[in-house]
Amino acid sequence: EKLRLQLTPSERTLLAKRDTADPEAYRLYLRGRYLSNERTEAALRKAIEYFQEAIARDPRYAQAYSGLADVHCTMATSYNKRVAPREAYGRARAAALRAVETDPELSEAHASLGQILVQFDWDWAGAEREFRRALELNPSNGVALHWRSHCYLAQGRFDESARDSLRALDTDPVSVMLNIHLGEHQHLTRQYDLAIEQYRRALELSPNHPNARPLLALVYEAKGMYPQAIAELAAAEPFWAGTSRVRGPLGRVYGLAGRRAEALKVLQELIRERAGPKYIAADDIAAVYSGLGDTDRAFEWLQRACEERATALVNLKVEPAFDALRGDRRFADLLRCVGLS
Q1: Fewer CB within 10 Å: C terminus or N terminus of the chain?
Q2: In 138-191, which ranges are continuous DSSP H helix?
Q3: What does the DSSP assignment read for 76-118?
Q4: Are 252 and 288 a contacting pair, CB within 8 Å?
Q5: Residue 190 CB neighbours (<10 A)
Q6: Cβ-count burial of 230 within 10 angstroms (0-12 exposed, 13-18 middle, 19+ buried)?
Q7: pTM score
Q8: 3-state secondary structure of 140
Q9: Are the CB atoms for 34 and 5 separated by under 8 Å?
């Protein structure tokens, strides 16, 4: 019951369906969904184990396949960067397809597949079809609304993104993630003051949420408020230790703020670690080069990011942090790579 109280209304509705006759499989699934919201690498890996155990007990458990797809996707998105996209993609896609195959009428299965089509395939039309089907099956699926809003936002379809973002928030007004997403919508549509207010609202709900501060920092960066951006990124950095999630933007802001030595230190760390076993995103190395004004190196690393299917490129068309590069003809090539030209 304690785990159930930590879930969103959409997740509790999903759990109420309980499409397994095995009580232990259901409990394992419930634990997996709970840990999926934690965002630490240990919690996400444990969630994967729980979903796999639930599937082992009931191989026809479509919701467990959907949950497994979601957590594999979460591990690789630009909001986490725990594993390389190509490492997560095959596992996420296989689980989502199995969920749809097992129960074609399960809204969450189509939402999971739609998210994968956005994050890894950059198949915008295919993703939109899956989200549409998910919402035909369950118009109150806040997760599907949230992810479709991301899909619209990346394409610059701002009115549709706003509609879905607000509809999703209506399904769960105290969801930290949905409050954060509304802030992200406002940030990417250049409504910076509204975005700051919204991210602060999310931080009131969860002062230590790992994604709110890095996203708030991007708004401060866009407004040229570099000390505030650096402070937010520094506050978030301990949670993201071992990843490039925060260090890439931090190095870029150091460069923009004229703190060249600190930017170069971050850059050297990222390049050194990328040669090892850790996943260090190519787009984060590009970010530091961009902040340092080295456009050629920035594009070189962004091309690598495109080849690696880096999920940060999903927002290439609308992210203000890329503005310094938009006038270069090579930027159009990147947009074509992501299917957003």
Answers
A1: N
A2: 142-154, 158-171, 176-188
A3: HSTTT--S-HHHHHHHHHHHHHHHHHH-TT-HHHHHHHHHHII
A4: yes
A5: 13
A6: buried
A7: 0.92
A8: coil
A9: no
Q: What is the pLDDT of residues 209-257, one digit of tens each?
A: 999 999 999 999 999 999 999 999 999 999 999 999 999 999 999 999 9
The residue with tokens 């994967």 is 48
Which amino acid is residue 31, in one-letter code?
A: R
Structural domain that includes position 97: 1-149
Position 212 in a domain: no
Q: Which among 149, 172, 197 is the end of a domain?
A: 149
Q: How far is CA 79 from CA 73, 245, 287, 314, in A?
A: 10, 7, 15, 12
Output the pLDDT for position 16.
47
Residue type, 338: V
Residue 39: CA count within 13 A, CB half-sphere = 18
**DSSP result, 4-45:** HHTS-HHHHHHHHH---S-HHHHHHHHHHHHHHTT-SHHHHH
Statement to judge: residues 8 and 119 lie in one domain: yes
Q: How far apart are CA 281 and CA 298, in angstroms?
A: 13
